[in-house]
Amino acid sequence: MSEEYVVSHDQVRGPWVQGRSGRLFYLQDPRPEYVDVRDVAHALANLCRYTGHTRAFFSVAQHCVLVSRTCDPEHARDGLVHDAAEAYVADLSAPVKSLLPEYRALEHRVATAVAAHFGVTWPPPPCVRLADRRVFLAEARDLMGPPVALPYPGDPAPAELVVEPWSPTEAAVRFLQRYGELWDGRL
Q1: What is the C-alpha separation between 142 and 26, in angstroms, rounded?
Q2: pLDDT confidence of residue 40
Q3: 60 and 44 in contact (C-beta within 8 Å)?
Q4: Is residue 45 assigned to a domain?
Q5: Number of domains into which the chain is organized
Q6: Which of 1, 9, 139, 171 is positioned for an S-S bond with 15, CB 3.0–4.6 A?
């Protein structure tokens, strides 16, 4: 007997993702008020970057903290939440995303709502994209096997940090601590 997986959805607002808090985030109707920073921290802390191809578990939350600390201070908020939409749509590798235009459109809609919740710009400013690339290069150097084709010609220097993975619990705590620093302690 075959069982079909039924997607959780609301008859009016469509499919949804339930955060750890119990709050629902409607994917076809993403709104800033559906976002909870604690849900974002928890989910990103439990998502492994690079589809798990690292020497140890390395979370999206830790990556976001590192980007926030690497970019220009006036854009540290943008850096911390630049991947926050992945709390609701997961972290797909760039090669997979390039094959899924519908996913990219969904991710953009969700990211726009998430950015509005946090009061940051979407897409992120160029300095955040630069910090993201610099942190990526440091992560690849410290967490993955020997790079076959990295860095690419024209890449910036890797961020000046040594990447040591945090546990999911530590990553969530540090994400929320950084959030508290940048948003004056508000949760």
Answers
A1: 37
A2: 98
A3: yes
A4: yes
A5: 1
A6: 9
Do the domain assignments include residue 187?
A: no
The 10s digit of each residue's pLDDT in 107-164 is 999 999 999 999 999 999 999 999 999 999 999 999 998 877 778 889 999 999 999 9
| Domain, as residue range, for 58 | 13-182
Q: Does residue 166 lie within any of the structural domains?
A: yes
Residue indicated by tokens 């690079």: 50
What are the residues facing 10 on neighbouring strands?
A: 14
Cis amide bond preceding 123, omega within 30: yes
Longest dimension (CA), the chain: 57
Q: List Cβ<8 Å contacts ≥24 apart for 8-14.
A: none
- CATH number of the domain that 155 lies in? 1.10.3210.10
Q: Which two tokens stand for residue 48?
A: 């492994």
What is the tens place of the pLDDT at every residue in 89-110?
998 998 999 999 999 999 999 9
- In this structure, are residues 25 and 163 in contact, taking their beta carbons and an 8 Å threshold? no
End-to-end CA separation in angstroms for the chain: 47
Question: Does residue 4 lie in a domain region?
Answer: no
Would you give the DSSP letter of residue 95?
H
Torsion of CA 130, 133, 134, 136, to 10 degrees: 160
